[in-house]
Each structure stands twice: as structure tokens, then as C-alpha cells.
Write a structure and sequence with these properties.
The structure holds two protein chains of two kinds. Chain A is α/β, with parallel strands linked by helices. Chain A is built from eleven helices and ten strands. Chain A is globular, with a radius of gyration of 20 Å. The longest helix of chain B is centred in the N-terminal third of the chain and has 29 residues.
């Protein structure tokens, strides 16, 4: 398997705080990878570096072999890296379908003149965009809610809509920032199912940040752990679960020592 | 009638009185003359009716007594086809509901208003009759107004020669207005015996319910007004004595405004098409039937409509607060002035003589100069846009404010190039097939009428382009940028291009408006392009409703047209106008006719319906829109005088 995304020695500093410290990470094509870590570990900052919101001080991010560093966010999504947000950031006053249409913005070609004249080509493109938008809403499970204004959607549906909007740009890598945060168990299940279907049906590589360990352990093929901006572990869910540094980061050094002691006794 | 309802009615009466005294203060009765009192009573009746209607909409404790729970479906007040389908529900209500509450309510409210007006006008009349000087500042308008109210000539007031009967008549008129309002409200919803004849009448007229009768009446209004305006224009016909010109102007403003509501009231489809065509014909006939003064005011109004539509792209669609919009207006005006006025800067005339062109003769006519003015303004828009790309909100507002002033100061101080404060004079007029419009139309179209016609056509064009753009992917990108700039960029919107396009297109429209303005003014000076033009343009889109072209037309009518109607009361003009703005923004914070998107966010519980039940909106957008438009239509017509 080739690496679709390759993060090399990426460092991001805010003032005196090193939010991301020389992180190396490879994401294989058509894989589902999770990024975990305690609050403030630098996970979202890493996402922001990948999508052009922040410019890292050092390191290199290669996507399909080409550097993403220094590109604008709209150029990065054009390359095929789309994302969702930890705190939902939909275009609140737009309907669900309009949100997905904005997602498709950079895939639409019609000139603005043709929009004024409503040429048949522009109309056909708009129709196709709407059709594709409906398909995507259907895909994430929001069929029938096309015309609902997005702030009026239930919380779980808003998260799904963010995914649909990201899919509008036909990405090959999708970054999900805590997709299951604040969801109830059944919504979480359908989100997990969606993540699987993204990979299996659409062939999209998924890289997600998640706090819900049940989600992480059951859907990820590999897991990376950040703590204080450093990558402290990487591997399959099982490997990471038993890693002493990970336990220490999550539960504190004392617990880690006790666990080690318990292991030693056995 | 419970005590609660009685106090409610008195309160309604008080509010109506406050509103009417405001109209009196700004000199409306004096302006209308003889029929002032019936007109005010009609306004009051409309007000009472709205109030009663609103109460019957809410499951109200006042007018409906104990039967709150049966009222959750708001029956009987939908407009259009749905109202008819609700017939059976209505009939149920007719049986369950009886009581004279609305009529008593209306009567009490009307009595309160009438009594208060009688007392106040009586006090004024008595004071003036006894030679007591009313505060000098009020002097100019009060006698006229008071006289008009009690239906006598100002001289009679001075002699204290007003019979008591007249005051009684005043009270009765308002009481009658209240009863009428009560009956009308009852006719649709309460099923009173007394209202039966109204019901029958409206059924006969419209074949359905009162609401459809109201709908047809609303739709007929602009046409009736237009016909009346045309009739007033005939030689020898006068109305309301001396102020005919202003009255006609006021009616023109109302006709144009109500036309927009008519369009919204009509059923989508063939009916709307027909109404649109008729309205178009009506509006485009206005330049031919109005006189120079009215045409020049309407021309200015529609020049500002163009400005508003352009600024709306920047502020309403893209969400970039631009306080220096006048800059592009000035660029358009001066570009045309350079190209068409005899004035030529010494720098350029040398060059022109070298090329063998007389610097005195206009370089380009109006039509040839149009693309040049638009292009120059667009370049100006981009030049402003580039430095402010990274600014947001307040910072953007301040920088654009500065830009507007820079352009004005340029015009003022670059004397050699722009003739400085002396301005550019004798700008040539737009031709019609190479002739002056007066010649071509055999005097039917005056020079100002021609400007008005051009402004109308350009506004229509600008509105068309703006709406189409807003409905395209560019419009979505603008709106996304307004909602969340970072996310929009991360979703694939090219921020630089999208912002610059907004600035450039907005500036282009302002340039068009500026060129027409220069042609209208004939002579332009730097002080024509002060900060206040920007503020006016911004205020009119906020008052009208950001993002909605129809709202912008209404805003321009209210902001640029009304002050001209109020010219007679110069001292109060600006105060009145400012007060109107304040009240307006409190009552309708989203503007007179907000765009659908703005409405979604509205905190107004009445309108929350649109946001709270999106599924309903999906079923039949036309109906809901129509209903809201009627409610607004009535409200606005009430505010307009």
C-alpha cells in the first residue's frame, strides 16, 4: 500500500507553545486512520496544518506526492483533501442542499455570464449539481431534508451534513474532526457505518480525530496518538491500547505504573 | 367584555392616536386638505383591523375569551387558495364562536382615538382663536393641520369660529372607523350576525372569503392609483387644492411600492405573469404622465435603487460592509462628465488639440460613455478591493469610509483635472436615437421623464443581473463567505476572486447610477458625492431589507421619495425622517421586505413560523410568501403616508 498522505516532521508553534512537534505520519490509501490524544494534544492543529488554515513552521506534508505546504485552503481542497469541523461550522442560513452545492463550488465550471443569461449549459450544470447534491444527502442519510435550513437540523444531522458538504468537492482524503462528538449511541453507530461506506463505496481515505474509544477501536485500521504535540504511539488499535505511554498520557503516570506492576505480577 | 379587553382596546386607541398625531405633526392633514379627517380615520381603521386580525391569529385571551385551545390552526386568515380549502374549518368556528367582542373592541379603540384627537385639536383651535401664540416653531404647520382636521379653513380657526358639532363629528368618525374595523375582522373569523352582510358582499365579490377579497383589492391598488395619477395629470383636473404636485408624487410613491406587494400577492404562474406585465406597463407609463418635478424625484429614487442594488451585492450578498460606496458613484459621474462636458483639463486639451479634436465638443455620447463609466468604476472597485481583502467587519467599514472620502477630496483638490469645487458644467443629455427625447416623442416625454425612464430600465436590468448572479454558484459563494469566511475558503471558494468580483460588480452598478446622475444634474460638484450618499445607499437597503431587490425599491421610495413629499415642512423634514427610520428599524428590524434568507433568522415570533416549519415552506412556498406579503403590505401602506 502506498501512502496517500505523508506528514514529515511537521512542527507548528504558537508563540512559545509548540502545538505540533515534529510529527511523522503516513496515511495509506483507502485506509481508516484515527488520531487520538488528550485535549490540547495538537490534533486539530495538525488538521489545520493539513488544510491550509495554519502554515507549519517546519516539515513537509505530501499528498499524492505533492507538497501541500503554502497552498491556500481552497487549493488544498481542490487537490482532494476535504474536512469537517469539531464545532460544527455549517453555513447556517442555507438549506442542506445549498450547503452541499457550496461544497461542489470548485467543481462547477459555468461562467458568471452564463449564469446571468442562464445558458442551457449552465442550467444543465446546475441541474447536475443539484442531482449530485441530493445523491450525497441521500448517501449520508439526509434524504428528504434537502430544503431544511441547516441551523434547524438536529445536531446529529448537522454532523452528517458537514460530511455531505465535504463530499461535494469529490475528495480522495476526508478529514473528520470528532465526527461522533455529542452523538447518542444510535447516531454514533450510523456515523461509524457511514465512515465504512465512505471507504468501501466511495473509495475515500478517512483520517479522523475521535475521543470515543469504542468508535476508534472498532473502525480504525491504524491509530496514531498525540500528546503535547508529539506523536507517542502508532499502530493497530490493539497495539496502541496496550502501549504504556498511551496509558500514561490518558490516565496519568501513577495508573501507568500500577498497570505495569499488575502486568509484572502476572 | 372583560376588563382586560377594554384596557387593550384603549391602549390600541392610544397607539393609534400617537401615530396619527405624528402624521399631524409632520403636516399630513394640511397637505391633504379637506378630506384629511376621513383619510386619517381610514388609516386608524386599518390599524385597528390589523390589531384585531393579529389577535385572532394568536390564540388570544383577549378577543376570543376562553376558547383558546380550539384556535391552534389559525384558520380563516390564510390568503389565496388555501383559505378557500379551509372552508369547513371556518364554518365550524362560525358556530362555536359568537360574541360582539371585536366590535366593542374596535368601538372603544376608535372612541379613544377620536376623543383624543378632538380634545387636542380643540385645545389648539381654542388657543389660537384666543390669540394665544403657540410655540413659534409649531406655528408654521399647526393652524393648517388643525384646520384641516376639523374641516374648516385656517381663517375660521383664527376667529375661533368652529362649531362643537365638528368635534362630535370627529369623534363619531373615528368610532365608526373602529366599528368598521371590528366588523371587518369579525366578518372572516368570528361569525357575527352583524358581519353577515360583509361576508355576503365579499363572497359575492371574490367567490371565497374576505381574505381573497382583500387580496384582489390589494392587487388592484397600484392600478387604481396609477389611473388616478394619470387622471390628475389631465389639464383642468385638480385635487386637494394647492398641493396637487406633492399629492401626485406621494401617490406615485405608494403606487410603485404597492405594485411590489401586488406582485407578491399574485399566485405564482400565469396570474403572476399577467400582473407583472400589467405592472411593467403601468410603471413604464409613469414617466409619460408625471410632470417635471415628479419625474425628477422619481428619477433620483430609481438612481438610488441602482445604487442600492449594487451596494446590496457587496453588503447584502457578500457581507462586506462598504461605507465608501459613493466613490464609485462619483467615479461614474465624473467619467461621464469628462467625456461629455465642454470642460477639459489643460493636461488633456493640449493632447486633444494635437489629435485635431476640439476640446470643447463632447468626446462621447451617453451610450458610448456608458461602458467606459462602468469599466472605470469597476477598476475603482478592484483597486479598493485589493487592500481590504484581509479586513473584516469594523475595520473594513473604516477603510472603505476613508476611500470614499479620498475620491471626493481628489475631485475637490485636483483643480486642474476636475475643475475643483467649481464642478463640471453642462454635461450633455442622453440622446434617443440621436435626438432629444422631447422631439422624438412629440413632447410626451419631458427631459426629466426621460431620465426617469432610463433609471427605470437600468434598475430593472441591474436587478435582473444581480438576482441571476445571486442565484448562481457565485451567489452561493458570496453567501457562504458571509456566513463563515474561513470555512468558505476551506470548502473551495476562492476568496480573493469572489470578494473582488463583489466589489467590482457592485462598483459597476454604482458607476452606471453615477453616470445617469451626472446626466440628471447637468452640473456636478464634488459636494454631490459626500459621505451622506454612501449612508443613504446603505440606509435604504437596511430599511428595505438587505438582500431583497423588492425591499431595496421600497427603501429607496421611502428614503429618497418621502423627504421630497415632506418638503413643505422643511424644519421637520429631517427630524421626521430620522424618527421614521428609528421606528421602522424597531418595528421591522429586518427591513420592510426582507429576503427569505434574512427572514429565517428573524427573532420575531410571528415570522418564526417560516423558520420553525420548514416542511410547510416546502409544501407551497407561494402561499406562505403571499400571506406574509399581505400582512406586510397592509403594514407598509399604513406607514407610508
Amino acid at each position: 500500500m502506498t501512502a496517500l498522505l505523508s506528514i514529515q516532521q511537521v512542527t507548528k508553534v504558537f508563540g512559545g507553545l509548540t502545538a505540533v512537534d515534529s510529527v511523522d505520519l503516513d496515511i495509506a490509501e483507502r485506509s481508516i486512520t484515527s488520531l487520538i490524544g488528550p485535549n490540547g494534544a495538537g490534533k486539530t492543529t495538525l488538521f489545520n496544518c493539513m488544510t491550509g488554515l495554519h502554515r507549519p513552521e517546519g516539515g513537509e506534508i505530501l499528498f499524492s506526492g505533492r507538497s501541500l505546504i503554502g497552498l491556500r485552503p481552497d487549493e488544498i481542497i481542490d487537490r482532494g483533501v476535504a474536512r469537517t469541523y469539531q464545532n460544527i461550522r455549517l453555513f447556517g442560513r442555507m438549506t442542506a442542499l445549498e450547503n452541499v452545492l457550496v461544497g461542489q463550488h470548485l467543481r462547477l465550471q459555468a461562467s458568471h455570464w452564463s449564469a446571468v443569461l442562464r445558458t442551457s449549459r449552465q442550467q444543465a450544470e446546475e441541474r447536475a449539481a443539484r442531482e449530485f447534491g441530493r445523491e450525497l444527502l441521500d448517501f449520508v442519510g439526509l434524504s428528504g431534508r434537502e430544503e431544511v435550513v441547516s441551523t434547524n437540523l438536529p445536531y446529529g444531522d448537522q454532523r452528517l451534513l458537514e460530511v455531505a458538504r465535504a463530499l461535494g468537492s469529490r475528495p480522495s482524503l476526508l478529514l473528520l474532526d470528532e465526527p461522533a462528538a455529542g452523538m447518542n449511541p444510535s447516531e454514533t453507530d450510523s456515523m461509524m457505518d457511514l465512515v465504512h461506506r465512505l471507504r468501501d463505496e466511495k473509495g475515500i481515505t478517512v483520517f479522523l480525530i475521535e475521543h470515543d474509544m469504542k468508535v476508534v477501536m472498532s473502525i480504525s485500521e491504524s491509530v496514531a496518538v498525540l500528546d503535547y504535540g508529539e506523536k507517542i504511539a502508532e499502530g493497530t488499535p490493539e497495539e496502541v491500547r496496550s502501549n504504556a505511554r498511551v496509558i500514561e498520557a490518558y490516565l496519568g503516570p501513577e495508573v501507568a505504573v500500577q498497570e505495569a506492576a499488575v502486568k509484572a505480577v502476572h | 367584555m372583560p376588563l382586560e379587553t377594554a384596557t387593550g382596546a384603549v391602549r390600541t386607541g392610544l397607539i393609534a392616536f400617537a401615530f396619527l398625531s405624528y402624521l399631524i405633526l409632520i403636516g399630513i392633514p394640511g397637505r391633504i386638505g379637506g378630506p384629511a379627517l376621513p383619510v386619517l380615520a381610514l388609516i386608524a381603521a386599518l390599524f385597528f383591523w390589523l390589531k384585531l386580525r393579529r389577535e385572532s391569529n394568536e390564540p388570544s385571551r383577549e378577543a376570543t375569551g376562553q376558547r383558546q385551545d380550539s384556535f391552534d390552526d389559525k384558520p380563516g386568515w390564510e390568503i389565496g387558495p388555501r383559505a378557500a380549502s379551509k372552508g369547513s374549518r371556518l364554518r365550524d368556528l362560525l358556530h362555536t364562536h359568537s360574541g360582539t367582542a371585536p366590535i366593542l373592541y374596535g368601538l372603544l379603540a376608535g372612541l379613544t382615538t377620536g376623543l383624543l384627537i378632538a380634545i387636542v385639536s380643540g385645545i389648539f383651535a381654542a388657543a389660537m382663536g384666543n390669540g394665544i401664540a403657540i410655540q413659534p416653531v409649531l406655528d408654521k404647520i399647526v393652524p393648517l393641520n388643525v384646520a384641516a382636521l376639523i374641516g374648516v379653513s385656517p381663517g375660521q380657526i383664527a376667529q375661533s369660529d368652529v362649531s362643537f358639532i365638528r368635534f362630535i363629528f370627529q369623534v363619531l368618525l373615528f368610532a365608526g372607523a373602529g366599528v368598521l374595523a371590528g366588523l371587518t375582522a369579525a366578518g372572516g373569523g368570528y361569525g357575527l350576525k352583524q358581519a353577515a352582510f360583509l361576508d355576503r358582499l365579499t363572497t359575492h365579490l371574490s367567490g371565497a372569503t374576505l381574505t381573497s377579497a382583500g387580496r384582489f383589492a390589494g392587487m388592484a391598488l397600484p392600478f387604481v392609483l396609477l389611473a388616478y395619477i394619470a387622471w390628475l395629470g389631465l389639464p383642468g383636473v385638480t385635487a386637494f387644492g394647492t398641493n396637487e404636485g406633492t399629492v401626485r408624487l406621494l401617490l406615485t410613491l405608494i403606487a410603485t411600492g404597492s405594485g411590489l406587494f401586488t406582485l407578491r400577492l399574485s399566485r405564482p404562474g400565469r396570474e403572476q405573469m399577467a400582473v407583472a406585465v400589467l405592472l411593467g406597463l403601468g410603471v413604464f407609463s409613469m414617466p409619460f404622465i408625471l410632470d417635471q418635478f415628479q419625474n425628477s424625484v422619481m428619477g433620483l429614487v430609481f438612481i438610488f435603487v441602482m445604487m442600492g442594488l449594487g451596494l446590496n451585492i457587496v453588503v447584502g450578498y457578500a457581507g462586506l460592509l462598504d461605507l465608501g460606496y459613493v466613490a464609485f458613484f462619483a467615479i461614474g459621474a465624473y467619467t461621464y462628465a469628462f467625456l461629455s462636458a465642454p470642460f477639459s483639463s489643460p493636461y488633456i486639451s493640449g493632447l486633444l488639440i494635437l489629435l485635431g479634436i476640439s476640446p470643447e465638443s463632447p468626446l462621447l455620447g451617453y451610450w458610448m460613455a456608458l461602458p467606459v463609466a462602468m469599466l472605470t468604476a469597476a477598476v475603482g472597485g478592484i483597486l479598493l478591493g485589493i487592500p481590504v481583502l484581509r479586513l473584516r467587519g469594523d475595520y473594513l467599514a473604516i477603510v472603505t469610509l476613508g476611500f470614499g472620502e479620498i475620491i471626493r477630496l481628489f475631485m475637490l483638490n485636483l483643480g486642474e483635472l476636475t475643475n475643483g469645487p467649481r464642478g463640471i458644467l453642462e454635461i450633455s443629455q442622453p440622446a434617443l436615437f440621436g435626438h432629444t427625447p422631447v422631439d422624438v416623442t412629440f413632447g410626451l416625454l419631458s427631459s426629466q421623464g426621460w431620465i426617469f425612464l432610463l433609471a427605470l430600465v437600468s434598475s430593472a436590468l441591474v436587478a435582473f443581473v444581480a438576482t441571476r448572479l445571486n442565484e448562481s454558484r457565485l451567489g452561493r459563494a458570496w453567501f457562504a463567505m458571509q456566513e463563515d469566511e474561513d470555512v468558505a475558503e476551506a470548502t473551495g471558494v476562492h476568496l480573493v476572486r469572489t470578494k473582488l468580483l463583489a466589489f467590482a460588480i457592485g462598483a459597476t452598478f454604482a458607476g452606471m447610477a453615477g453616470q445617469l446622475y451626472a446626466a440628471r444634474q447637468i452640473n456636478i460638484f464634488p459636494e454631490n458625492f459626500s459621505l451622506f450618499v454612501s449612508i443613504d445607499a446603505l440606509a435604504l437597503i437596511i430599511v428595505g431589507g438587505i438582500g431583497s431587490p423588492a425591499g431595496i425599491v421600497l427603501g429607496a421610495l421611502a428614503l429618497k421619495g418621502l423627504p421630497e413629499v415632506l418638503r413643505g415642512v422643511d424644519e421637520y423634514r429631517i427630524v421626521t425622517f430620522a424618527a421614521l427610520l428609528v421606528i421602522m428599524m424597531i418595528v421591522r428590524p429586518d427591513g420592510i421586505l426582507p429576503s427569505a434568507r434574512r427572514r429565517i433568522q428573524s427573532p420575531d415570533p410571528e415570522e418564526a413560523g417560516a423558520a420553525g416549519e420548514p416542511e410547510l415552506r416546502e409544501e407551497d412556498p407561494g402561499l406562505r410568501e403571499n400571506g406574509e406579503a399581505l400582512a406586510k403590505g397592509a403594514g407598509v401602506r399604513e406607514e407610508d403616508p
